[in-house]
Amino acid sequence: MSNIVAIAGGTGGLGRALAEAFKASKYTPYILARKANPELEKEIGVPVIPVDYSNQESLVRLLEDRNIDTVISAISNYDNSHSVEPDLIKAADQSKATHRFIPSIWSGFDYTTEQGKENPLAASRLVLFDALRDTNLQWTAIFPGIFLDFYALTVRAYVKKSALGIDIDGNAAAVPGDGKYPIYFTHTLDLAKYTVALMGLEKWEEKYYVYADKKTWPEVIGIAEEAKGVKFTVAYDSIEKLKRGEVTELPGHRDVYKMVSSGPEGKAIFQQIMSGVSVYMAEGHMVYEGPFLNEMFPDIKPLTVEGALLKDDRA
């Protein structure tokens, strides 16, 4: 086995965090992207290799020619119809050089089959498990809770802010249910460090969990208000409302509609996804039982919610 890692989708926010962490380690990273990016390549010192995910033969040849042992995916998928990752999984399985794969799960929820029938985001994750179970690859999925990058005010973040629960720029929040349940948070720069550490294990479990902090939404809202010195406009969406596919629209949602789809259906798709995810939170389904990467690798000191919003508290 080699120490060479390919990060698919490595020009995005999470992908860049992963690429930088691997660049600072004993591993040799490559970024796989749909097009060349010489500026990013020069900036972070990691080669960006243009790939055609629809060309199975060229993918296999690339993995073998570069002697890539592990593929880590940070490809963004909102639904199965646009997913190229199953093709990448097949290519990795066919490659004689490639032995391990980490799919683009990176989810707060360990979705069930039933949830996959209801929610396109859940379905897009579950299809990757099905694809990997049909291979001879060693693989694992990582569940980091919600990205702290969405709300970060005091530290750099490559993942853009997102109005998930709290719109940090819009001074507003929409709490699913009564907000009494715990939510897990991890910053992607720390998630990348845990991923590098995981590479050192000889054998992987199928799933690992990690969290840098655990708080309720009202607790996070209080920290955000302290950080910004303003009172947030806060709505509480009942489970009944969420099950009707309705969520309180926050100012930051409008930008996300365009990311989900360039057409007018972007809002409807987003609301379907968000209402489903919000129901899972409101019903307390973000419950992790381990194994926990933060317990396995205690030397990594991750950022907390207070650290991301008030003052970086990493030792």
What does the model show?
- Helices cover 38% and strands 16% of the residues.
- The chain has 13 helices and 14 strands.
- The strands form four sheets. The chain has a six-stranded parallel beta sheet, with helices on both faces.
- Strand 1, helix 1 and strand 2 form a beta-alpha-beta unit.
- Helix 1 (13-23) packs across helix 7, helix 3 (56-65) packs across helix 4 (85-94) and helix 10 (253-260) crosses helix 11.
What's the quick description here?
GO terms for molecular function: oxidoreductase activity. Residues 3-238 form the NmrA-like domain. The chain is of the alpha/beta class and 315 residues long.
Write the topology of this structure.
Blueprint: E1 4-8, H1 13-23, E2 28-33, H2 38-44, E3 48-50, H3 56-65, E4 70-73, H4 85-94, E5 100-102, H5 113-118, H6 120-133, E6 138-139, E7 141-143, E8 146-147, E9 166-167, E10 172-176, E11 183-186, H7 188-198, E12 207-209, E13 213-215, H8 217-228, E14 233-237, H9 239-243, H10 253-260, H11 266-282, H12 293-296, H13 305-309
Parallel strand pairs: 1-2, 1-4, 2-3, 4-5, 5-6, 7-12, 8-11, 10-14
Antiparallel strand pairs: 9-10, 11-13
Helix pairs in contact: 1-7, 3-4, 4-6, 10-11
Family: Belongs to the NmrA-type oxidoreductase family. Isoflavone reductase subfamily.
Domain NmrA-like: 3-238
Protein name: NmrA-like domain-containing protein
